[in-house]
Amino acid sequence: MSILKQVLITLAVCVVGFVGLIAFIPAALPVLDRLGLLAPFGITVPQADAPAGGASGGPGRRAAGPAKVIAMAATSDNLFDEITTIGDGQARHSVTLLPEVPGVLSSLGAQSGTYVQAGSVIATLQSDIQQIELERAQFLMQDAQDTVDRVTALGAAVPAIQRTTAALALRSAELDLQEATFELARRQITAPISGWVGIIALTNGDQVTPTTEITQIDDRSQILVEFRVPERFVGQIALGDAVQATPLARPQDILRGTVTALDNRVDPASRTLRLQAALDNSDDSLRAGMAFRITLSFTGEAFASVAPLAIQWGSDGPFVWVVTEGKAAKQKITIMQRNSDAVLISGDIAPGAQIVTEGVQNLRPGAEVEVQTTDGQTTGGQAQTTEPAPRG
Predict the structure, then answer these.
(1) For 235-265, what is each residue's pLDDT tens digit?
(2) What is the pLDDT of residues 221-233, one digit of tens each?
(3) For 96-109, how does the pLDDT look when each residue is reduced to its tens digit (9 = 90+)?
(4) Distance from CA of residue 254 to its chain's centroid?
(5) What is the pTM assigned to this prediction?
(6) Are 224 and 286 found together in one domain?
(7) Compositionally biased, Low complexity: which spans (predicted)?
(8) What is the Cα Rg of the chain in Å?
(9) Residues whose CB falls within 8 Å of the CB of residue 334, separated by 6 or more in sequence, listed in order
(10) Does 322 reside within a domain?
(11) Is the four-CA dihedral 145, 151, 154, 155 of positive or negative sign?
(12) CB neighbour list of residue 317: distance below 8 Å, 6 or more residues apart
C-alpha cells in the first residue's frame, strides 16, 4: 500500500472519530472547545454544558447537593410456588367380577349401568348337579340325626360304641351339607361392594371360566386422581393438602380435593413422587378414567419484597441501593423469586428499609440522597410503602 493511501485512510479514521465524539459523547465538547477544534467548524458549546468553576468546585464538576431519588419501603412476603401436572382418575373402589368355577351362564341379575348394593346377585351359573348334591346331603343329615335321636332315647340299653358311631355319622353328614351348600353358592356371582355396574357383554348360555370377566363394579362416590410431582417437592406435601383439579374435557370446571396418599419412595427412573388426591363426586358427574389437570400451591419461607425496578446488576451479581440516614449504600442480594409485581430477595434487608427504585444512575456508595415521591415532593427521608398484591 502506498504512503498516500495510508495517509488518506488515517485522515478518514480521524474524521470519523471526531464526528463520533461530537455526535455521541456530548461530554467531550468542552474539552474539544478548549483545544480549539470546534471553532473552525462553527460549533459552539451550549452554556449549560460549559465548564463551571469557582464555587462549584472546579472545572467539569456539577453543583454540590443530594441526589434526588424515589424509594419504597421493603415489605415481607412468602415464597410462592405452584405446580401443574396431569393425572388419571379412578373410582374410590373398583372390583372386577370373575367366576370362581367354570360353568354355563344361566341368568343375569343386573343390567349394565345400574346401581347395585353389596351382596346383590349379578349372574348365576347352571347348578343342577350342585342342587342334587345339596338335597342328598340334606337327606343324609336328616337320617343321621334320626339315628342319634333313637340311640339317645334308648339310653343305657345301647352300647357306647354304637352311640359314638351315630354321633360321628351325624357330624360327617353336617360337613357334607356345608360342602354342598358352598358348592352351590359358588355358582352365584355377587357384588362385593355397592356401586355402578359396567357393561355386561355376556348372555345366557355363554361358557365361562375363572378368567372370564363378567363385569366391573365402581364405587365412584369419590374419584381418586393419581399424579406425579418432581422430587424437589418431597417434604413440602402432606396428607390433607388442598389441590385444585380441572377435567381436561371440561376446562371450565374447577374442583377442589385433598391429598389422600403419598408413595413411600421416589421413582429413580423419572425422579418423581407418586401422589393420590380425592375429589368429591356426590353429583356423579365424573367417571373413572378421566384425565385431570392438578394444581398444587405452596407457601414457603418469608423474604424481603422489593419493586422490580429496584434490582440492579453489577460485576458480582444483583444488588439494591438502600437509603440509611440520608445516605446511599449498595447492598448485595440474592434473588429468590420474581413475580409480576415484586421480587423476593435474600440479603441484609429488613422490612421497612428504604430501597431506591428511581434515580439509581446518580448514586454512589455514601452519597447523600433526598427521597422524593413520584410527583416530585420531598418525603423527609421516609420511603413510600406499598402492600404486596395478593395472589390468587
Answers:
(1) 888 999 999 999 999 999 999 999 999 999 9
(2) 999 999 999 998 8
(3) 999 999 999 999 99
(4) 15
(5) 0.58
(6) yes
(7) 372-386
(8) 45
(9) 317, 318, 345, 346, 347
(10) yes
(11) negative
(12) 332, 334
In a domain, 354, yes or no: yes
In a domain, residue 74? The reply is yes
- State the pLDDT confidence band at 34, using cuts at 50, 70 and 90: low
If asked whether residues 170 and 204 sit together in one domain, one would say no
Alpha-carbon gap, residue 210 to 157, rounded angstroms: 54
Q: Could you give the count of Cα atoms lying within 13 Å of 80 in the half-sphere of its Cβ?
A: 15
Q: Domain tally for the chain?
A: 5
Beta strands in the chain (DSSP E): 67-73, 75-97, 103-108, 115-116, 121-125, 188-190, 195-197, 207-208, 215-230, 242-247, 255-267, 272-280, 291-306, 312-314, 317-324, 327-338, 343-347, 354-358, 369-372
- 76, β-bridge pairs: 304
Is residue 280's pLDDT more than 90?
yes
Domain that holds residue 111: 99-125+190-213
Let me know whether 134 and 39 are in one domain.
no
Grid cell in block for residue 49: 454544558
